[in-house]
Amino acid sequence: SWTPDNIIDMRVEQLKQQIGDKQVLLGLSGGVDSSVVAALLHKAIGDQLTCVFVDNGLLRLHEGDQVMQVFAENMGVKVIRVDAEDRFLTALAGEADPEAKRKIIGKTFIDVFADAARDVSQGSDGKPVEFLAQGTIYPDVIESAKSHQGKAHVIKSHHNVGGLPDDLQFELVEPLRDLFKDEVRKLGIALGLPHKMIYRHPFPGPGLGVRILGEVKKEYADILRQADAIFMQELERSGWYEKTAQAFAVFTPVKSVGVVGDGRRYAWVIALRAVETIDFMTARFAHLPYELIETVSNRIMNEIAEVSRVTYDVSSKPPATIEWE
Ligand code: XMP
């Protein structure tokens, strides 16, 4: 019968068989799928697993530290954190077009990951890496079998590290390939991953890169991280985080006039986005209580000097998309 513990035991056995005493590399994003793969592989092969976590500077507040805390500190998983903020921001400088930004982020990710993979596979202990693990789940398999046109194809191409250079050819390990998201979540909980990590909203591969409209700058990312963290705190506090499928703040490169004390403040506009959806193909803007929106808006304007105005996005999908870019 399908119980998480049965599945875990079976997969652990299969992984041991498949991998033997070889070394495995995994790109850890902190998302549900790669996290569950990391936990599963750690259970199966322990120290033969090395994870690479790329901090692209486009993550949410404290996100990188949290990933390190859960995996490296609590679980004893070998994780290499690559601080690549400068590399990503330099590559993105001057680019305002959404699809061009996605491409740059995807390509830079591959480059950074490939460099790290080379370092690991030339490893100090002289044991080459033969396997690359990926958090591919069943819907990804279906998705990539479908049309190669449009965004659907783009969606997972960043997480799943296709397109690695020729000198880095690995055999793939994809232990979640036949599982649906809800099954993956159950495995994650049974493997002892934090509830918060397993039930969090989806976060796009390009991260804040597509939530900062137009050109990406560190200054904007820092403001957005603060605003987003306030929004998340209040959603969680009010019980609305679980009632929405996805929620986030957006940095608009628009300045607006405000008033603080005796003075005027000419500062940035932050937009809040929250949606209800089952399949992410269509979505309705979440009907958050006005009081909640008011609390979030006041906190953002009071706590972040660089923000003078907050708006709430009342667009549904279609015709709007969930992300602003
Ligand atoms: P849209 O904005 O197309 O988003 O309505 C639908 C879902 O897909 C996510 N999304 C992405 N995920 N890379 C990703 O990994 C991307 O480039 C990307 N664009 C959108 C979005 O967050 C939402 O969950």
From TrEMBL:
Catalytic activity, reaction form: XMP + L-glutamine + ATP + H2O = GMP + L-glutamate + AMP + diphosphate + 2 H(+)
Listed GO MF terms: ATP binding; GMP synthase activity
EC primary class: ligase
Domain GMPS ATP-PPase: 2-200
GO cellular component: cytosol
Record key words, sorted: ATP-binding, Glutamine amidotransferase, GMP biosynthesis, Ligase, Nucleotide-binding, Purine biosynthesis
Binding site for ATP: S29, G30, G31, V32, D33, S34, S35
Involved pathway(s): Purine metabolism; GMP biosynthesis; GMP from XMP (L-Gln route): step 1/1
Signal peptide span: none
Source organism, top-level taxon: Bacteria
Enzyme Commission designation: 6.3.5.2
Complexes and interactors: Homodimer.
Annotated function: Catalyzes the synthesis of GMP from XMP.
Name of this chain's protein: GMP synthase [glutamine-hydrolyzing]
Gene: guaA_1
